[in-house]
Amino acid sequence: MKKILWGLLVLVVSMFCIILCSCGRIGQNVSDSQSGFEIPSESEEADPMKEDLLYLDFESFDGNNVVDAAGKQKNAKVEYVFTHATFKGNEKLPLRNGVSGQGLFFDGYSICIAYKGFVMPTDAFSISAWVAPRIWSYPNGETKAIVCQTSGERSGFMVGYGNFGELRVSFYIETPDGVVLGQSLGDGEAYLSLYEWTQITVTFDGDKGTAALYLNGHLFDSRTFDKGSRLKASAFPLFIGKNPAASLYENVFSFGMFTGVMDEVRITSGAESAKDIGKRYASFLSENGEHPSCSFENVWTDSTLLDDDIYRPQYHLSPSLFRMGEPNAPFYFNGKYHIFLQYHGTATPTGPSATSSGARWLHFVSEDMVNWEELPPAIIPEKNSPDYSHCFSGNAVISLDGTPYIFYSAIDLRKSRSGCIAFAKAKDSTDPYLTEWEKGGWC
């Protein structure tokens, strides 16, 4: 009898201890949740409401069609003018280094991907992508789309960028009362950087009435609206790399094309949590916790792409792609010839047009004036600068202390007196390529 009673006592004490331990774990989860970091238990299952509807890691292709790694969408054609070239040999799709494996290079005038019939969730979703832009438009450029599904009417969504890399996120909601409202995130405060990777994540939760913008795993902006609102769906195709609502130049070239490298494009049903977004970003960091690196060469146009074009000059200096203006500021320094070209970098009009991409100085060096190496642009228009719109013609001098200077016409079309003379100097005169230039004053 005593053995039975003793066994019952041990059983009761054991159950009591289990309850206490469970309460302790529950309390820890509540505390962590309140502090903004929730620790899921090992037995926690994935949210069945969240699944990838499209995942482009650009690792698998079927010819010129990209394969959806999520397995939900049919293979989609990557539009690219040189897969069926007219005046040169055909080219394979331009793949570059991504944040993981390979990414897809977008040339800014022909490359894009479209998914007809793509059904975007209207109650909750997440959109994410890694982008490294090559160039952007100045000064009144239309939005260059990263991911979008809109026809320009009051429906759908847009994730893209505009002037000076200004990130533009917009979408239309329909409130429970049936009112259609436009919403935005970023609002002129978020900017992308040239030749650098940025992870963009947008979340939408209609039931909670919230939307948020994350940059590199960190919350940047958020919005609240009526709970129970829904995304105003668009019947237009889903586009990667093209804004179908943008205007056309010569009825051919769109002003709304992304240019640079893109990787890890993902659309998910359900709004991802801040923790999941942070974990996803952290998964792309190096072992030392460093942000993914990128290079100018990785996002710039291929200098050999048009070597076999029957109309390309084979002797005279010309940029790797797109039209050029007049050459400027030739000089010889430390064993190399330097020259700069007026360059817009997209298939848009040249000249002081409000719709063109801003003129910049593309830099070339040579040892024999026959074989030229294309370098990063020496000067480009900047937001808070007298060259807000364009860096136009100029020349170069070598100062008495041996420092190369370039001076040029700085244009700001917002002003009635739009032009002035500005200058920049070589940042490091010991660099034989004079790759970096520092802007100085103006008059």
Please give the structural blueprint.
Blueprint: H1 2-34, E1 51-56, E2 61-62, E3 65-66, E4 76-79, E5 95-97, E6 102-107, E7 112-115, E8 124-133, E9 144-149, E10 157-161, E11 167-174, E12 180-185, E13 198-205, E14 210-215, E15 218-224, E16 230-231, E17 238-240, E18 248-249, E19 253-254, E20 259-269, H2 274-282, H3 296-299, E21 324-333, E22 336-343, E23 360-366, E24 372-379, E25 390-398, E26 404-411, E27 419-426, E28 437-442
Antiparallel strand pairs: 1-20, 2-3, 3-4, 4-7, 5-6, 6-20, 7-17, 8-13, 8-20, 9-10, 9-17, 10-11, 11-12, 11-16, 13-14, 14-15, 18-19, 21-22, 22-23, 23-24, 25-26, 26-27, 27-28
Quick overview:
With 443 residues, the protein is mainly beta.
What would your notes on this structure say?
The structure is a single chain. The protein is mainly beta and 443 residues long. It has two domains: 51-299, Sandwich (Jelly Rolls); 324-442, Tachylectin-2, Chain A. The chain is 10% helix and 38% strand. The chain has three helices and 28 strands. Strands 2, 3, 4, 7, 9, 10, 11, 12, 16 and 17 form a ten-stranded antiparallel β-sheet that branches. Strands 1, 5, 6, 8, 13, 14, 15 and 20 form an eight-stranded antiparallel β-sheet that branches. Strand 9 and strand 10 form a beta hairpin. The longest helix is centred in the N-terminal third of the chain and has 33 residues, at 2-34. The protein is globular, with a radius of gyration of 27 Å. The N and C termini lie far apart (104 Å).
